[in-house]
Design goal:
This protein has 90 residues and is mainly beta. The chain has strands spanning 12-19, 25-35, 42-52, 63-68, 76-85.
């Protein structure tokens, strides 16, 4: 009997880092557009996620790709998969 064990498909979201004050943790804001049920206009909704950043490489303003993972703490069930774009230094 040959079984193939697949890794589960994990959700991936793209967002912007809004806080990096914690150790190995960043707060990522993910924006999404939803259609208003009555008026049909598109409305922007935002959600903040705490994501695990093992190397402390992400800083405020960076664009990152986060993916679901095992629970690291009570509120941290996402991890930074990739740093997509660095924030510009002014």
């Amino acid at each position: 009997m040959s079984e193939t064990t697949e890794t589960p498909r994990r959700r991936r979201l793209t967002g912007r880092v809004v806080a990096d004050k914690m150790d190995k943790t960043v707060t990522v804001r993910v924006d999404r557009m939803v259609r208003h049920p009555l008026y049909g206009k598109f409305v922007r909704r935002t959600t903040k996620y705490h994501a695990h950043d093992e190397a402390n490489e992400c800083h405020t303003g960076d664009t990152v790709l986060i993916e679901e993972s095992r629970p690291y703490s009570k509120s941290k069930t996402w991890k930074v998969a990739r740093l997509m774009e660095r924030a510009t230094k002014v």
